[in-house]
Amino acid sequence: MFLFGKSLCVALVSMTLAVNAHAQVQDTISKKTPLLTGKDALLLGAFTLGTALVAPIDMQVANRLQDPRAQENRFLHNSATGFRLLGDPGSFVTAVGVYLIGRADGQRRVQALGLHSAESILLAGVLGGGIKMLAGRQRPFVDVKNPYSFQLWRGFSGDQYRSFPSGHTITAFAFASTVTRETQFWWPHSAWYIGTVFYGGASLVGLSRIYNNQHWASDVMGGAAIGTLIGLKVVKYTHSHPDNHIDRELIKSKRASQSQPIPIVFSFHF
Fold first, then answer.
1. Rounded Cα distance, 238 and 245, in Å
2. 100-145 pLDDT per residue, tens
3. For residues 82 and 170, is the Cβ–Cβ distance under 8 A?
4. Which residues, at least 6 apart from 52, have a Cβ–Cβ distance to it below 8 Å?
5. pLDDT over threshold 90, residue 243
6. Minimal CA–CA distance to 95: which of 3, 186, 178, 165?
7. Predicted model pTM
8. Spatial separation of the C-alpha atoms in residues 82 and 231, rounded to whole Å
9. Model confidence at 182, in pLDDT bands (50, 70, 90)?
């Protein structure tokens, strides 16, 4: 799993660029729709329900993964370390790397992919960090038999009370949702395979945090909700407002001819 995650990051940063002036792909959302819609409410409701359903088994899941046989398993240990690093700082470093590659070559789509991913990660991280401070949930390594220890504002007193939501999971899902949605503008039917890879990787990041006894399962569900929703909203806003200040200042074309649609081919090597 560690090699899988490492290869995924390298493959994304080392994407092959191919110019195709005849491609007819729409890069903007021409129809002005509300930033928040009924579908978003349904998605948020599904995540909230999932978090509520998982919460009662927080202690059982934690105990199962803290079993000495699981903790002494070298493969699981190395995989958890790899996916933890893949989530943070791996996701943000990859996003910045993709942006810089696109900037150096004047490829607008590559720049947008990296920039919007970084924006999603930062915004979701700020929101998640605020909730951590507010919720004041105790991490499982403090007391694995007490999953319901919340206290308002206790997160300010120390990291051991910043369990909910999982920051690594937020980062991983913000990156996954942004990449999946962005690439749909180039390949409308790509969500099935790109989404499977990136959301699957993000889920393993969350699982690694439970294995490392840093988070409860419901922390991971909450982090997945925040990261996914923020990623989708950043993409929706930036593509429905292509003249927004950040994109206008940070996304540049090397040559005027490069304003033609430019698809990107990912080369994954596992």
1. 10
2. 999 998 999 999 999 999 999 999 999 999 999 999 999 999 999 9
3. no
4. none
5. no
6. 178
7. 0.85
8. 23
9. very high
- DSSP state, residue 145: T
Give the integer Cα–Cα distance in Å for 131 and 167. 10
Alpha-carbon distance 19 to 261, whole Å? 8
How far from each other are the two terminal CA atoms of the chain, in whole angstroms? 10
Give the H/E segment covering residue 192.
helix 191-211
Q: With contact defined as beta carbons under 8 Å apart, do 174 and 165 qualify?
A: no
Q: How many separate helices (H) and strands (E) can be counted in the chain?
A: 11, 2
* DSSP string covering 25-57: ---S--S---SS-HHHHHHHHHHHHHHHHHGGG
Residue 94 is which amino acid?
T
Q: Which band of pLDDT confidence, cut at 50, 70 and 90, is reported for residue 93?
A: very high
Q: Which residue type sits at 53? A: L
Q: Is-contact 222 166, C-beta < 8 A?
A: yes
